[in-house]
Amino acid sequence: MVAKFGNVNGGRDEKKDKYLMEKSTNKKEIDMLNGPLAGKLIFFALPLAFSSILQQLFNSADVAIVGKFCGNNSLAAVGANVAIVGVFVNLVVGLSVGPNAALANLIGSGKKSGIHDMEHTAIGFGALLGFLLMLIGIVTAKPVLELSGTPEEIMAAALKYIYIYFIGMPFIVIYNFAAAVLRSFGDTKRPMYVLFLTGVINVVLNLFFVIVCKLDVAGVAIATTISNIISAVAVIIFLCRDEGEFKLHLRQLEIKKSQLRKMLQIGIPTGVSSAVFSLSNIFIQSGINTFGADAIAGSSLELTFEYFSYDISSAFAQTAVTFMSQNYGAGKLKRCNKIFCMCLAFGFFFAQLLSTIFLIGQDFFIYIYTSSASVAAYAAVRLHFIGGLEGFTATYEVGGSGMRAFGRSLEPAIITILGTVGFRLLWLITVFKTIKTFESLMAVYMTSWILTGGTILFLYFRLYKKLLKEHEGSVFEA
Predict the structure, then answer these.
(1) Nearest one of 41, 57, 54, 177 to 119, comparing CA atoms
(2) CA nearest 64: which of 231, 222, 211, 164?
(3) Is the C-alpha dihedral spanning 162, 168, 174, 180 positive or negative?
């Protein structure tokens, strides 16, 4: 059975919902249910992509400042935490898909009377989750770094960085959940503006804490935490000042079981699969660590380029789940598939285009972050092995989002776990153990992308055909 957010055929207070729809004056809302799609999809996705790229750009400023002013060991200390941070951040981003999809479905089905409870449950749950993740992160950071084989000479600095970073975790969660609420009705621009502002603040604080205060990696972590706090406060203010049904009342925050269940049905499988995807990178990191501090630094340096391209795939995946959730709620199944195919094509093309630019200009881009030839050499190897097929990240990202929009979140989660953790562990104990080179280790990424993406796309189109057949001639329309 396909889990539905709500009954598309009825069960609503139609007069009340019609009144709320007419009353809504939110000028930032996008009509996702009618008219041409290409322009709307691109203009919705671009601010999302720019938001993530801006965030990554300013994060890469952390790497550049540490690399230039603190040395290779400090750069490696920050790089040793990339996989750990990725697990927590991807878990949060994945969980935030839940309220995004649930709210978009309410909008599409016309059930705007349920938005208040869903929104307040999302923000309240996000705040509690953030504090829980902060505690878990602080407790588990040292054991994870030790298990991954972090070199002793960078362990103290790595721990100092990650402990300070986790202090900001509650604000990271609140920002992502509040931004998910804004995305559900089409507002992707204001979160982008917030990230641009806080990114500038982050760079200024980085320079101040590292160069003036001589705080090394601790200074970078403090600057990042302050920026995360400002981001969370800003998006909460946006919601509190909304004049429509999305207005947030902080005193009315309440976690309602029925609303939380709807969010978590989509959010938990998505969040867990995203976190596990990053968890697999910890295993890969253990292999990278065997090549020494220069390999760790070079690999973490190249990740900045990798994330830039991946952010585009991710943006079109978020676009797909939002647009498709609204149209699925409205019963427009064929329009859902059209949205899916366009997001898949756009995500693949633009991600690969940016990755190709990095490949062509690799000498220029790599030496922005380091002056070490050894570090640069490792970065170049990783870029060559991964950059050539970066567009394939759109296959599993958009593919999984398409299934989640139809209420199916478990299957893409299972495939992602098997295709990343399972396959990559198998690669480590077979291929890498036999051919113990940095190149053989890097080859696992593109192989797992093709395997995972191809399987998820097969499952999506099979599900779509099933839904189309089941609802042929019913409420579903083009």
Answers:
(1) 177
(2) 211
(3) negative
CA 450 to chain centre: 20
DSSP alpha helix (H) spans, 208-292: 216-240, 257-289
DSSP letter string, 119-181: HHHHHHHHHHHHHHHHHHHHHHHHHHHHHTT--HHHHHHHHHHHHHHHHTHHHHHHHHHHHHH
pTM for this structure?
A: 0.74
Q: What is the pLDDT of residue 234?
A: 95
Burial of 429 (0-12, 13-18, 19+ CB in 10 A): exposed
The C-alpha R_g of the chain, in whole angstroms, comes to 22
Report which of 46, 28, 13 is spatially closest to residue 244, judged by C-alpha positions. Answer: 28
Q: What is the pLDDT of residue 58?
A: 64
In this structure, what token pair is assigned to residue 233? 């406060």
In single-letter form, the type of residue at position 150 comes to T
Please state the φ and ψ torsions of residue 129, each to the nearest 5 degrees: -60, -40
Instruction: Look up residue 23 and give its two tokens.
Output: 């009353």
Handedness of CA 17, 22, 23, 28 (dihedral sign): positive
* Gap between the Cα atoms of 18 and 14, Å rounded: 6
User: Which ranges constitute the DSSP H helices of 388-437?
Assistant: 393-405, 410-417, 423-427, 433-434
User: Which of 150, 176, 195 shows the shortest CA–CA distance to 97?
Assistant: 176
Phi-psi region of 199 (alpha: psi -120 to 50; beta: other; left: phi over 0): alpha
What is the CA angle 341-347-348, rounded to 5? 90
Please identify which residue in the block is written with the tokens 């999984």: 400
Rounded Cα–Cα distance for residues 390 and 350 (Å): 10
Are 148 and 282 a contacting pair, CB within 8 Å? yes
Number of H helices, E strands in the chain: 19, 0
Tokens 């991964």 sit at which residue?
Answer: 386
Kindly give the interhelix angle for 293-329 and 38-69, rounded to the nearest 10 degrees: 160
Ranges of residues in the chain whose predicted pLDDT is under 50: 1-25, 474-476, 478
